[in-house]
Design brief:
By secondary structure, the chain is mostly helical. Helices cover about 75% and strands about 0% of the residues.
């Protein structure tokens, strides 16, 4: 009787394990550790984020520092570079599909969203993106690029806040520690006693730049969280082609909104005079704007890629990691001073990122252990069943 009960228990456990496996072959239990190819993609996306963001910020500041005065043009170059992605659509569809490995979270049998849902999603995100880029443009116009980049570190805290409600982001000690450090690093910059790096900017404009940059950081955190929500709940796909579609559609809507603002404000009338009087010359004026636009598109590809590979919060964390690079480069290119407050803010920002990265390492290690344990239990169960059958 005891052997019969033992056999029944093992069979029941084996059936429970089989029932826990969905039809597409992926388990609902712990996810296996990421494959090497996935980490390679994550590394490439991270390089795009770090390089694109640093170059774009420096060129954006160069535009304003050498005679650029149009906030709407500073906004437009953050968005209008999306046509550089059009050659991707010329690649044959078979190569597109074969070159991208499907993620376990991609469900090919799910019903695609309607055109109305997609159009509404892209319109809302595009308008938010345009408003966000405008605030960033105002901040970059009135603030030293070093101060501007360090304030942008607060976007991780805003992203975590919105992800908690939209994407069920879990908060651990290390993540909370990271958010606190990044927030404090931004608050420290409020106490700068003087503004030597932008002598032509009044205290009032400096305050406007500070407020706009904080507002832009909050808006960017919201846009990233909504984008992750779009991938997970609406598109339900993680192909690279979907990343390109989202970037192009959002940027198209945002560019149209920005063009309306450019012409409605009347700033377009002064662009010719601005180009003619640009301190570095007409050719440099065009090249600065063109490379700024391209750099922001590299950043967009990397950011979207990290969102679907991991999460919007991780994508933002990589972005925050690159922010301290900008103040160091600004010392050499714009001769800005690195006072004690900026150095302390930079150290806190780096510490905050390390705290967040450590939490991701702990999660990955824990997932690996749970996966190995589940595999050993399943294997032991199968061996036990074979022995009983014998």
């Amino acid at each position: 009787m005891g052997e019969a009960q033992e056999l029944q228990l093992r069979v029941s456990a084996h059936e429970a394990i089989n029932e826990a496996k969905p039809q597409n072959g992926h388990t609902n239990g712990p996810k296996p550790r990421r494959k090497l190819i996935s980490w390679i993609r994550i590394g490439i996306y991270a390089v795009f984020v770090l390089a694109g963001q640093s170059v774009a910020m420096l060129l954006g500041r160069l535009y304003f520092a050498k005679g650029g005065n149009s906030k709407w043009m500073g906004t437009l170059v953050q968005l209008v570079g999306f046509p550089v992605l059009f050659p991707y659509y010329l690649i044959p569809s078979k190569k597109n599909k074969n070159s991208i490995t499907e993620s376990p979270r991609t469900n090919p049998s799910s019903k695609p969203p309607s055109c109305l849902v997609l159009a509404s999603s892209y319109t809302v995100l595009g308008i938010l993106l345009a408003a966000d880029c405008y605030l960033y443009s105002v901040g970059l116009m009135y603030l030293p690029v070093s101060t501007y980049s360090l304030i942008c570190a607060s976007q991780l805290a805003f992203n975590a806040f919105f992800s908690f409600f939209l994407n069920s982001q879990k908060f651990t000690f290390h993540i909370i520690n990271s958010l606190v450090l990044l927030t404090v690093s931004s608050i420290l910059l409020v106490f700068q006693s003087e503004n030597e790096d932008t002598p032509n900017v009044s205290r009032g404009k400096y305050a406007i730049g500070f407020i706009c940059t904080v507002g832009a950081s909050a808006g960017y955190g919201l846009v990233l969280s909504l984008t992750q929500f779009l991938f997970n709940r609406v598109l339900k796909s993680e192909r690279f082609s979907v990343i390109i579609d989202v970037i192009v559609c959002e940027a198209l809507v945002a560019s149209l909104v920005t063009l309306v603002g450019l012409f409605a404000s009347g700033e377009w009338k002064g662009l010719t005079a601005e180009m003619n009087s640009y301190a570095l010359g007409k050719v440099s004026y065009i090249m600065v704007l063109a490379w700024t636009a391209i750099s922001w598109q590299l950043f967009s590809i990397g950011s979207m890629g990290l969102i679907i590979e991991l999460s919007s919060l991780f994508s933002n964390a990589i972005s925050v990691l690159g922010l301290p690079i900008v103040p160091v480069l600004a010392v050499f290119f714009f001769h800005e001073k690195m006072d004690g407050i900026k150095v302390m803010a930079m150290m806190l920002a780096i510490w905050g990122f390390i705290s967040y990265a450590y939490q991701n390492y702990v999660d990955d290690y824990s997932t690996k252990k749970e996966s190995q344990k589940a595999t050993r239990e399943n294997r032991a169960l199968s061996i036990g069943e074979r022995e009983i059958n014998i």
